[in-house]
Design a protein that fits this description.
Chain lengths: 457, 426
């Protein structure tokens, strides 16, 4: 359906363009007047009246077709008394039978009937889709063609349409944010209708079990997120312990000491570090760093688990080095030269100038850079999914297994998803926490950096 | 007397201070070297693990394509060949790897071979139907355990009960090596096959195709939308609260963790709009929304770089505003926007977490052909292989990482090339 509807729409817009152009040409020849806009604009006007309704039809079909067919199938399904049904599985089975994917014999008659019905509904829907898209394109073009005349300012209208299109494009970003907030809050609301907010924020027990059958022991699970927050914090601290000194010192060396040549080679190399996908860091953490941390722990007499906060944190630290170094580099470079010269002029050497003058002057910017790096570390997923643990563990020992917010989101959604189960919904509550924390860190950091910039401008 | 003491003190102090200065400089230098050393170590640890995955181990097998056993005739149809008793031929061949094998030894021998060799034997027959009733020597794929042992990835000096291969099997392998009946060859499976439960026949073709399709969707969606949005914000937008809101929104959206976009995809695209699960369509849409801010920021920078005199010149000779923008400013900014888009696509190529959320982690053993078919993607494939307990998958994931790094490198090189080649300095 996808391919043929694209072809159909392309044919439609081509013929409507030709249609509009010939129409205005004919008008010009018959009246011998100069039109208000060029031919092309009239043609584009007809084209847009053909394309837009077609797109609306196409997308409404794409979104609602399957939904409506499913509802019709389920409504008319001949349920057999006493058998247990799951709507999702049932539909999947019907679809497989209808598409001839499932060859296994012994399908019950009601499924075969439903599959036949599914097939016929699908066919009806496709035929009506093609008919309605053709009708709507013809109607749209006819309407537009009727409006064309010598006096009609097609160019103005087209430019107005283009402007609307551009506004729509820029509102996508806003719609995305609204979508994020809407989905997080909506699903979190459902989560908190089953689990109390107080338990989520203050309890230290996190056992998100799925109740397999009713009345099972520990069926509800418990959703105290404190160990998760603590684990996230621990990993973040380890990461910052690595990244903050290395990143900051690198930035100082590059901007104050290094020659132009060194800077030109080292900066792109550090950018490579920033461009490596996080799953690659995860692999590195899991295969190289974690065994090393384990054997190191054993050699100093600490029993380290194979996946530990330390391994994940170290590698995450490496990942955020380039963030800190490039942001701090910018900040240090924007400290006015006069401050440096003043300090050097009264006899301070370079290290003293940096430590006593430049760093204090650049401090707000550096704090901003650190905050951005922290927000990055908290939101990082793949390293911790692979190299930290999945079981909640309230500890301050970096050699132990901990889990983080992002890991729990992945764990909750990677298997079966049931949107009436608090286990699945907990992902959205944790996502909301993550979103709020990273967003506020980000806003705060940007504000600090902006204030700092203004001071020296 | 006093002045000499003071002078000495000053000299001592100066020495101390310049030592401090030097030390501070070295701290910076060491920090920089440390960062670079980690980069080198990371690449080394991946490359040294991954290279062996480009080779596979094969074992020479004597196969008797006997008409009677296969239940085939020279003029059998394709369907009959499909149902030919190739497993019986395989069984006979395995029993004759060494002379006078006992039953238990034959069982052990069988475990040295991939489960896929039935198909290899059959495919060889389909390609060469003339081999019927002859005995052929065929190199067939060895089991991953043998492969890993011969590559030195698993060790043979650990106790027998912690090894995948027992002592008898090891002695068989040694004998095969001695007789030159085992060899390493280029691993074509790695590039032509999709994921599999068996490491020796698993490949990246499926996930690679999935990644390409996903990137296609990302490009189709994000490139026009980003250009539209940045043209509006740079050229048309009135300076008001709404515009400011959009701008703040875009810069903040760039810092939202990628996993949150995955939740958006799950909560809105899958659950509300009913997009098909695990497909490049929904994955690409999520990644497009995620990379949109990056691309918009790059596009705006390149639009800003076009000098206003060009637009003003067009306006002065009577062009309308949109003619000036679309006929003059946008074409000049196009190389810059393309560079930004490629960098955004590179970011999307490496992204894993949002794809896990929308179900692209399912085990998919075939190569996808369309954007509405379930598929994996390269980084998710790496994730699945890293998580897998099977040892043979580790070198596969390292090799897949090498492929993905190669592509990222090429994309970035292309971006740099475009920038240098087409971007004008005004």
């Amino acid at each position: 359906m996808f391919f043929w509807s694209i072809v159909l729409i392309l044919i439609g817009i081509y013929s409507s363009y030709i249609f509009g152009k010939s129409r205005i040409k004919k008008l010009v020849y018959s009246t011998n007047l100069k039109p208000k806009s060029q031919y092309n604009y009239h043609a584009q006007y007809v084209l847009s009246w053909c394309l837009l309704p077609a797109l609306i039809v196409y997308f409404s079909w794409a979104i609602f077709e399957e939904q409506i067919i499913q509802n019709l199938i389920l409504d008319s399904f001949e349920y057999v008394e006493g058998a247990a049904y799951d709507d999702g599985l049932l539909l999947a089975e019907i679809r497989n039978v209808a598409n001839n994917i499932d060859f296994s014999d012994g399908k019950s008659q009601e499924i075969i009937n439903a599959a036949a019905q599914y097939k016929s509904l699908k066919l009806t829907s496709q035929i009506s889709f093609y008919i309605s898209i053709i009708i709507i394109m013809v109607l749209g073009s006819l309407y537009a063609v009727r409006k064309i005349n010598i006096q009609f300012n097609a160019q103005d209208t087209i430019e107005k349409y283009i402007k609307y299109l551009l506004i729509f494009c820029s509102s996508i970003a806003v719609l995305t944010t609204i979508g994020i907030i809407f989905s997080l809050i909506f699903e979190s609301f459902r989560f908190f209708s089953q689990v109390s907010l107080f338990e989520f924020l203050f309890s230290t027990e996190w056992y998100p079990f799925i109740p397999i059958r009713e009345g099972q022991a520990a069926a509800e699970g418990s959703f105290g997120a404190v160990p998760i927050f603590a684990g996230t914090f621990l990993v973040m601290i380890v990461a910052m312990c690595v990244a903050a000194p290395i990143g900051l010192l690198t930035a100082i060396y590059l901007s104050e000491y290094a020659s132009q040549k060194v800077r030109k080679t080292v900066k792109p190399l550090l950018e490579i570090l920033a461009g490596i996908p996080t799953i690659v860091y995860g692999f590195f953490a899991f295969v190289t760093v974690a065994p090393f941390v384990k054997s190191f722990g054993q050699s100093i007499g600490i029993d380290a688990s194979p996946t530990s906060a330390l391994a994940a944190g170290l590698v995450m630290g490496v990942m955020i080095i380039p963030f800190i170094s490039s942001l701090s580099d910018d900040v240090i470079n924007s400290v006015p030269q006069s401050l440096r010269e003043g300090s050097l002029g009264i006899g301070a050497n370079k290290a003293e100038t940096i430590k006593k003058v430049i760093l204090p002057a650049a401090l707000p910017g550096i704090v901003g850079a650190f905050l951005l790096a922290i927000s990055r570390a908290i939101g990082e997923t793949m390293i911790v999914v692979v190299a930290a643990g999945t079981a909640a563990n309230l500890t301050a020992n970096p050699f132990e297994n901990v889990t983080t917010v992002t890991v729990q989101i992945v764990v909750a959604l990677i298997g079966d998803q049931e949107f009436d189960n608090p286990r699945t919904l907990s992902a959205f509550a944790l996502g909301l926490v993550l979103f709020v924390i990273t967003l506020s860190l980000n806003v705060l950091a940007l504000r600090i950096v902006k204030k700092y910039r203004e001071r020296y401008e | 007397m006093n002045s000499i003491v003071a002078q000495e003190r000053i000299i001592a102090l100066r020495k101390k201070r310049s030592a401090q200065d030097l030390r501070f400089k070295y701290y910076g230098f060491i920090a920089m070297c440390l960062a670079l050393a980690v980069l080198v170590f990371l690449l080394y640890s991946i490359f040294s693990r991954g290279f062996s995955a480009f080779q596979k181990t094969t074992i020479l097998l004597e196969i008797n394509y006997d008409q009677e056993i296969l239940k085939l005739t020279p003029d059998s149809t394709d369907q009959e060949i499909e149902k030919g008793k190739f497993f019986k031929v395989k069984k006979n061949a395995l029993n004759n790897v060494f002379e006078n094998l006992s039953k238990s030894d034959a069982k052990l021998i069988k475990k040295l071979f991939s489960t896929n060799i039935d198909k290899e034997i059959k495919n060889y027959y389909i390609d060469n139907p003339s081999v019927l009733n002859t005995t052929q020597k065929l190199w067939v794929t060895a089991h991953s355990n043998v492969d890993q042992m011969l590559k030195g990835n698993s060790r043979r000096d650990v106790p027998e009960d912690r090894r995948k291969l027992n002592d008898i099997q090891l002695s068989f392998i040694d004998q095969l090596v001695e007789e030159d009946r085992i060899q390493k060859e280029f691993n074509n499976f790695f590039f032509t096959r999709a994921d599999s439960r068996h490491p020796e026949i698993a490949g990246i073709a499926g996930s690679f195709m999935g990644s390409l399709l996903t990137l296609f969707v990302v490009f189709i969606l994000s490139f026009p939308i980003a250009i539209g949005a940045s043209v509006y914000l740079e050229e048309f937008a009135p300076k008001n609260k709404l515009t400011e809101l959009i701008e703040v929104n875009i810069s903040n959206l760039a810092a939202v963790p990628s996993i949150v976009f995955g939740l958006l995809g799950l909560g809105v695209l899958l659950n509300v709009f009913g997009f098909p699960r695990s497909t490049p369509l929904v994955g690409g849409t999520v990644l497009a929304l995620m990379t949109l801010p990056t691309i918009i920021i790059a596009c705006r920078a390149s639009l800003k770089a076009v000098p206003p005199s060009i637009k003003e010149g067009a306006l002065a000779i009577g062009a309308t505003k949109s003619q000036a923008v679309f006929h003059h400013v946008v074409p000049l900014a196009l190389p810059g926007t393309l560079t930004g888009t490629i960098i955004g696509l590179a970011q999307a190529l490496g992204e894993t977490a949002p794809l896990i959320m929308i179900g692209m982690v399912a085990f998919i053993p075939n190569i996808p052909t369309g954007i509405t078919e379930p598929s994996a993607s390269l980084p998710v494939q790496i994730f699945l292989w890293v998580e897998s307990a099977e040892r043979g998958f580790q070198e596969k994931s390292a090799a897949a990482i090498m492929i993905i790094l190669l592509f990222l490198f090429m994309m970035n090189a292309l971006a740099v090339y475009l920038r240098n080649r087409f971007e004008k300095k005004w």
